[in-house]
Amino acid sequence: MLEVKVFELGLIIQANCYVVSEDGHALIIDPGSKGRGVQKYIEEQQLTVDAIVLTHGHFDHCAGADHFVKEYQCPLYIHPLDEPMLRDPKLNFSADFAPLVVTARPRLLQRGKQTIGHFTIEVIDAPGHSEGSCLLLLKDRMFCGDVLFQGSIGRTDLIGGSNPKMVQTLRMLKQLGKDYIVYPGHGPATTLNEEIRYNYYLQSV
Q1: Of 13, 77, 124, 155, which has the maximum CB count within 10 A?
Q2: C-alpha pair distances (Å), 121 with each of 109, 130, 139, 151, 168
Q3: What pTM did the predictor assign?
Q4: CA 61, CA 56: separation in Å to the nearest integer?
Q5: How far apart are CA 53 and CA 115, in angstroms?
Q6: Does the domain made of 3-203 have the CATH classification 3.60.15.10?
Q7: Where are the domains of the chain?
Q8: What gap in Å lies between CA 115 and CA 129, rounded to an integer?
């Protein structure tokens, strides 16, 4: 059974980091800082970390990536269009705070279903917040980064953002045809049907 544990990480901007686990294996999604609580949970649950996976390349979702890659000797994954953000503080939006460069060389997510360690993940392109923003689907769970929030959506005014592409992404979400449990980059979990029904931004496209 798939288990999801959420941690709010980050000293400047808190973002949701998720530990997704099943059968003793785990993925860490969007580690925004080192997160001692994350390591404690992994130790307590005796989990083997198969990979770190990023929904996009902004600093508040990847500042802990190098730490966890080193700690667990596991690969890092990101969408190819956001890969340059890891090495450029201006692109990852950290230049005005604490400039961040991720040194781990990532593997690139591919569109569609793929196996990462123990897990089968479906990756769906979801640009708008960033060029390489993507949805990570694991069974009936959707990890959407800053694409969709409870009652809102991600901003489109940062480098790589696009309002027209966000509109296309929102239309795509309405056509998925399945009520996923949605785990966003900030704020509480929700469901896709709930957002389609009540989220103004989804209603308006």
Answers
A1: 77
A2: 10, 20, 8, 26, 22
A3: 0.97
A4: 7
A5: 12
A6: yes
A7: 3-203
A8: 26
d(CA 31, CA 35): 8
For tokens 């996009």, the residue is 56
Query: Average pLDDT of each block of 10 consecutive residues along the chain (205 residues)?
Result: 96 92 98 95 98 98 98 98 98 93 97 97 98 98 98 96 98 96 98 98 95
How far apart are alpha carbons 204 and 199 in whole angstroms?
A: 9
Q: What is the DSSP string of 113-157?
A: EEEETTEEEEEEE--SSSTT-EEEEETTEEEEETSEETTEE----
Residue 113 CB coordination number (10 Å)? 10
| Nearest to 42, CA basis, from 62, 60, 61, 28 | 28
End-to-end CA distance of the chain: 35
Q: Helix (H, G, I), strand (E, B), or coil: what is residue 49?
A: strand
Reported as a single tens digit per residue, the pLDDT across 30-73 is: 999 998 999 999 999 999 999 999 999 999 999 999 999 999 99
Share of the chain above pLDDT 70, in %: 100
